[in-house]
Every structure is written in structure tokens, then in C-alpha cells.
Amino acid sequence: MSEGPRQRADAVAAEAEPVHAVGAVDAVDALRAQWERERPDLTGLDAMALVGRINRASSLLSKGMKPVFAEHGLEHAEFDVLATLRRAGTPHELTPSELVLASMVTSGAITNRLDRLERKGLIERHPDPCDRRAIRVRLTSPGLGLVDRAMVAHVANEERMLAGMAHEDQAVLSAALRQLLIALGDTRLG
């Protein structure tokens, strides 16, 4: 029997040693040192370094998620739509407007994503029984099965990518990022 994504992630996590910050440097440290050398008068380099680390981490995490989505025949944005429908609960359907508000995708691209997912047989669109002008989007049975399989692999992959950080450090980072998001006004979907 082959090893599944969860088992692979657990094995990687067990082998990984947490990275401790004492004496460790990252690419942002090199950038900061260049600015300190070239512009010693600049203040706010701590903020620049923090934003740089958030951006670089986001980029690296996104890159690390692509292979898992590709294994399931999906792009990240398609996965977000399917996951949004899945977490909406039975009957796993929303209007396109509700999808935009509840998902991590923008309204400008939702129609294209829905078209692709419908061609793949993962969603279906049908008239809203309460408003014939409105359309509802629903996961199909194959779509539900796919998003459930992809979600297991996705979460295992995220655990694998974070395995180099101690769980306590992950909790501290998560709390600090929550505080930042609240300060930036990001308190609800939509």
C-alpha cells in the first residue's frame, strides 16, 4: 500500500529540526544589511524587514502549495472556490456573489474560474428557485470528492512546510499575524 500525503508529511515533520533564530540569518537580513550600508540614515528598517519576511514567506508558501493542487488537476484559485463551496455546508452551494464574499478570490475572475470548474464537471450552475434572475453554484459529487481529497493533501502539505518551526513558535507567529490583520482591518471575509 502506498504512503499517503498525511503519512509523508508526518515523516518529514518527524525528521525536521526546528530552526532556532539564535545566529540564524535569512535573505531579508542580507537586504537589510545592504540598506544599512547604503542608507544608514533610513529609519523603519525593522518594519521593512518584517513586511519583507511576510511577503517572501507568502511567496514561498504559495509556490510550495502549487504541486499539491496540480496533483489534483487544480489551480490554487480553483481550489479556493471548491473549498469555499465545501465549507458552506450541505447542499454545498452559493451564489456567485456569495462565493466572492466568502472565498479568497476576487470578483473579476470568478466567472472564468466557474467556467473552468464547470467544464471539469466539478460544479454546476442552476437558477435560484427564489429568484429566477439569480444563479446558484453547487459542488457536483465528483467536485465534492475531489475537494475532500485535495483538502487532506493540502493540510498535510502545509504541516510539512511549517515543520521546521516548533509548534509553540507557530502559535506565537499565528497570534502576531492575527493581531496585524486586525490592525489592518481584515476582520471578516469579503
Report what the structure shows.
By secondary structure, this protein is mainly alpha-helical. The protein has two domains: 44 residues, no CATH class; 110 residues, Winged helix-like DNA-binding domain superfamily/Winged helix DNA-binding domain (Arc Repressor Mutant, subunit A, Orthogonal Bundle), CATH 1.10.10.10. Helices cover 64% and strands 9% of the residues. It has a three-stranded antiparallel sheet with strand order 1-3-2. A hairpin with a 2-residue loop joins strand 2 and strand 3. It is elongated. The chain starts with a helix and ends in a 7-residue tail after the last helix.
- For the record, what CATH class of the largest domain applies? Mainly Alpha
CATH topology call of the largest domain: Arc Repressor Mutant, subunit A
Overall CATH architecture of the largest domain: Orthogonal Bundle
In angstroms, what is the radius of gyration? Answer: 21 Å
Q: Report the principal-axis shape.
A: elongated
Main sheet overview: 3 strands, antiparallel
Strand content: 5-15%
**Continuous helix count:** 8
What's the arrangement of strands in the largest beta sheet?
A: 1-3-2
Domains (count): 2
Structural class: mainly alpha
Short recap of the structure:
64% of the residues lie in helices and 9% in strands. With 190 residues, it is mainly alpha-helical.
Keyword list:
mainly alpha; 8 helices; 9% strand
Topology:
Layout: H1 5-15, H2 27-38, H3 45-71, H4 76-87, E1 93-94, H5 96-102, H6 107-119, E2 123-128, E3 131-139, H7 141-162, H8 167-183
Antiparallel strand pairs: 1-3, 2-3
